Amino acid sequence: MDTRTAEQRRWIMQAVKSRDTGPEMVVRRLLHSSGYRYRVHRRDLPGRADVAFLSRRKAIFVHGCFWHGHGCPKGRLPKSRLDYWGPKLNANKERDRRKEEELRSMGWDVLTIWQCETADLEALAGRLHGFLGRRAAGRVAGSAESSSPSLASRTSHGQLFSA
């Protein structure tokens, strides 16, 4: 049984976005602050990857744990209307698998970041850097980049996510 009224549930569901979500913005800010440049929501790619690196042929999907059926606590099925949510979320997982397969068949590498993984910025940064490798040379040694604080100090002081 739902603990919300129909009006409350409608308002909550209308607030859910499909792009530029909180977890997606965490990933994009982290990438940008690390010097990577990318394209977002490319319509010419299967699944419209949240972040695409065209020259590297790498795509990143940032999935909400609930909507894409992750195995973490946030990805649990609701207790009500299982006849609706079960098939819907299974179809989402199947579509994700298909689109990732299509991208791989086109020669792209694909990384999926889950909403729950965006809480640990250091681990997320390591995972992103491992997937992407070195960023393209854009700044010369001795520039502001070489004397800038580490990712850890930027995130611990809130500079990475300031407005």
What's the structural blueprint in terms of helices and strands?
Layout: H1 6-14, H2 22-33, E1 51-53, E2 58-63, H3 82-105, E3 109-114, H4 121-132, H5 144-147, H6 151-156
Would you kindly provide a written description of the structure presented here, covering whatever features stand out?
This protein is mainly alpha-helical. Helices cover 41% and strands 9% of the residues. It has helices spanning 6-14, 22-33, 82-105, 121-132, 144-147, 151-156, and strands spanning 51-53, 58-63, 109-114. The longest helix has 24 residues, at 82-105. It is globular. The N and C termini lie far apart (40 Å). The model is unreliable at 139-159 (pLDDT under 50).
Entry keywords:
single chain, mainly alpha, 3 strands, 41% helix
Secondary structure class reads mainly alpha
What's the total number of strands? 3
Helix and strand run: HHEEHEHHH
* Proportion in β-strands: 5-15%
The biggest beta sheet is recorded as: 3 strands, mixed
Q: Which parts are unreliable, with pLDDT below 50 for 5 consecutive residues or more?
A: 139-159
Helix content: 40-55%
Bulk shape: globular
State the strand order across the main sheet: 1-2-3
Radius of gyration: 18 Å
The count of helical stretches stands at 6
| Distance separating the two termini | 40 Å
Chain-averaged pLDDT: 83
Quaternary state of this entry equals single chain
